[in-house]
Amino acid sequence: MDFDNLPRHIAIIMDGNGRWAKKRGLPRTAGHAEGAETFRSIATYCKEIGIEYLTVYAFSTENWKRPAEEVSSIMNLLEKYLCESIERMERDNVKMKFFGDITPLSPKLRQLIERTCEISTHYDGCQVNICLNYGGRDEILRAAKLCAESYAAGNADAFSEDVFSSNLWSAGIPDPEIIIRPGGEKRLSNFLLWQSAYSELYFTDTLWPDFSKEDINCAIAWFQGRERRFGGI
Ligand code: FPP
After folding, report:
1. What distance in Å separates the CA atoms of residue 128 and residue 107, rounded to the nearest whole number?
2. Binding-site residues, ligand 1, Cβ < 6 A
3. Which of 73, 105, 126, 208 sits at 20 to 30 Å (Cα–Cα) from 26?
4. 15 given a catalytic annotation
5. Contact predicate 94/43, CB 8 Å
6. Burial, 210: exposed, middle or buried (Cβ in 10 Å; 0-12, 13-18, 19+)?
7. Which atom number of ligand 1 is nearest to the Cα of residue 77?
């Protein structure tokens, strides 16, 4: 892996927590807890090697269909993670943002998210984007509505790619050069549908809680071997 030629933006679908737990005879929630630890160590590693943006899929607009007990355990984990992060942010110099509509979340979680974002404005290290109640289609529809409003207000350029992108949660952030999906499935599952137009897609059977620095190094090395043509020749 060439540390001088890193992608600016890496996105990850953190999949396989449930199977990791099942293999060990543990409840699925134990898999999510281990997945949150993996997230912490991968985010720290990405910051150390100089990745500018890391975007992770923590909870999708479809994940509400899971049993209430599992949903609440993921929300509790997020609360715990954010409480700890707020304490550690100064030391870690990690900037956090959230993609997705947070209004259906608990008041406590929303408050923690707002506090985290507020503190984040003081830091300029790796920017970690946590996708929470996020869906790619939902994001595109929201952006389309904003563009339509702008068009109705007289902005004839409201439907350009630039204006459309500026209405996405990821406004101002370069598209991910690579999307990594551990857990064996080969699909995007409604993740970053607009932003993934030219992303390289890396799939591995490793389950997310087992995903290590070596695994991310392998993904980056694979990415560095790709020829990216963006529709040219
Ligand atoms: C997918 O695995 C994982 C999720 C839907 C939840 C991801 C949440 C975390 C890693 C914990 C909290 C995150 C942060 C950022 C602190 P799955 O349950 O679908 O796995 P399976 O396919 O093996 O069942």
Report:
1. 22
2. 14-19, 32, 35-36, 39, 56, 58, 63, 74, 77-78, 81, 130, 183
3. 105
4. yes
5. yes
6. middle
7. 12
Q: Which of 4, 5, 15, 155 is catalytic?
A: 15
Ligand 1 centroid from CA 174, angstroms: 25
155, part of any domain: no
Q: Which atom of ligand 1 is nearest to the CA of 38?
A: 10
Domain assignment present for residue 142? The answer is no
pLDDT digits (tens, 9 = 90+) for 82-133: 998 888 766 677 899 999 999 999 999 999 999 999 988 888 789 999 999 9
The total number of structural domains in the chain stands at 1
Q: Is residue 69 part of a domain?
A: yes
| 138 a catalytic residue | no
Residue 163 lies in a domain: no
Where b means 16+ CB within 10 Å and e means fewer, 81-106 reads: bbeebbeebeebebbbbbbbbeeebe
Query: CATH number for the domain including 130?
Result: 3.40.1180.10
